[in-house]
Amino acid sequence: MAWTKVGTVREVPVGTMKQVTVDEEKITVYHLEEGFYATSDVCTHASEYLSTGSLDGRIVACPKHGGKFDVTSGAAVAFPCVVPLEVYPVEVRGEEVWLDFE
Ligand code: FES
User: What is the residue with the minimal CA distance to atom 1 of ligand 1?
Assistant: First the structure.
């Protein structure tokens, strides 16, 4: 486990998401009403970046074919996505957002 600073709270307002890169992996950080979450940014269907899609509550929609995931669990919740996303622990430390990436 390796905690890495990936940005600040102000960079990701509530209801938005942002792509970050950790060890060459593309990860999306989401700021929901209930807190911060992070998943792989790469859609498990056909490798589109989810951070270029849309976020509605805890559901991110892929821009390529409209598949959806619950960003709090990584679960695929709409076809054609069936394989869950990798999820990563996130902590807010003061104004900083940290992510645990192995
Ligand atoms: S690439 Fe994401 S739904 Fe197809």
Answer: 46
| Amino acid 102: pLDDT | 78
Mean pLDDT of 41-65: 97
| Pocket perturbation via mutation, ligand 1, pick of 40, 41, 44, 45 by most ligand atoms within 8 A of CB | 45
Half-sphere exposure of 49 (CA within 13 A, CB side): 12
Q: Which pLDDT value is given to residue 1?
A: 63
Domains of the chain, each with CATH number or no CATH: 3-100 (2.102.10.10)
Decide: 52 in ligand 1 pocket, CB within 6 A. Answer: no
pTM score above 0.90: yes
State yes or no: pLDDT of 17 exceeds 80: yes
